[in-house]
Amino acid sequence: MTALSPALPLWEDTPVTHRFGVAMAMHANPYSGELVRAIRRAARRHGCEITLADTGDSVAEEAAVIRALRADRVDGVLLVPAAGDEAVINGLVRMGVPTVLVDRMAGRNDVDQVGSENIQAVCALVRHLAGLRHRKIGFISGEEDMATYEERALGYRLGLGRSGLRWTSQLVACGQSTPGGAAAATAKLLDSWPSPTALVVASEAMMIGVQYEAHRLGIRIGRDLAIVGYGDMEWAGQVTPAVTTMAQPIEEIGRKAVELLLARITDPERRPESVRLAPRFIHRQSCGC
């Protein structure tokens, strides 16, 4: 049976207005813990409790977790969908369970969602590199069946177009959204022709693999190879050189997710919203300027 973490308590004597289930992979992203804390703070401000369930980033485990949360009679669900998830979301929508998709947004308009803006953010990263006179800008993409990574790939192509550069498949490799996959993708790009002089990395987890492979090959980041990324991992500002990146607004995502779920519970017939919050550009040294 799927285990649920106990509801996180409010302050003593605080009346509980609602109980929410939070279903997510606790170790899928470097910021998962930060997101849980943001949701908990927002829920507490509204007098709500949360019950946390780890999906392991597996569709099968996610389905089991959702069944357990519903059996526990939560008032609504905050879900960070696993890659390839459609059946679980479809079921929640069909049964009318108040639901908000968090962080990983899906390409649909029948459920409330909140996450970071991806297209213009990655476009801005590409244009920053192009402004530094890079003409061979590579891209380490994520899992191909996730809308989030599809949007970031679109942002990469948009950035190239706006910089007067041509897209070529030889400068793109899929990092499978993992450090190991990104290391292999980096090795492939750097061993190909044309070899990129700069890389845009689509997630925090993959940045770890890119950094590892560059160091393994003796490539000096910021000098031999410019690197920028999406997501501000805890170590990004501590390595040498520090990583230029787009920092996701995790606190705002958690707050808005709770607000959207409360709005759905209050008015079940309201039109679903898809909210994209702008990330913040953090300029450091890995881009070489």
Question: In brief, what are we looking at here?
Answer:
InterPro entries: LacI/GalR-like_sensor (IPR046335), Peripla_BP_I (IPR028082). The protein is of the alpha/beta class.
Could you characterize the architecture of this molecule?
The chain contains 8 helices and 12 strands. It has 289 residues and is α/β, with parallel strands linked by helices. The strands form 2 sheets. The chain has a 6-stranded parallel β-sheet, sandwiched between helices. A 6-stranded mixed β-sheet has the order 7-6-8-9-10-12, with helices on both faces. Helix 7 (204-216) links the parallel strand 8 (198-201) and strand 9 (226-230). The termini are far apart. 47% of the residues are buried.
Work out the number of β strands.
12
Overall residue-averaged pLDDT value: 93
Low-confidence runs (pLDDT<50, min 5 residues)?
A: none
User: What fraction strand?
Assistant: 15-25%
List the helices and strands and how they pair.
Layout: E1 18-24, H1 32-45, E2 48-54, H2 59-71, E3 76-79, H3 87-94, E4 99-102, E5 112-116, H4 119-131, E6 137-141, H5 147-162, E7 172-174, H6 179-190, E8 198-201, H7 204-216, E9 226-230, E10 244-247, H8 250-266, E11 274-277, E12 280-282
Parallel strand pairs: 1-2, 1-3, 3-4, 4-5, 5-11, 6-7, 6-8, 8-9, 9-10
Antiparallel strand pairs: 10-12
Keywords:
8 helices; elongated; six-stranded mixed sheet; six-stranded parallel sheet; 289 residues; single chain; 37% helix; alpha/beta; transcription; LacI family transcriptional regulator; 12 strands
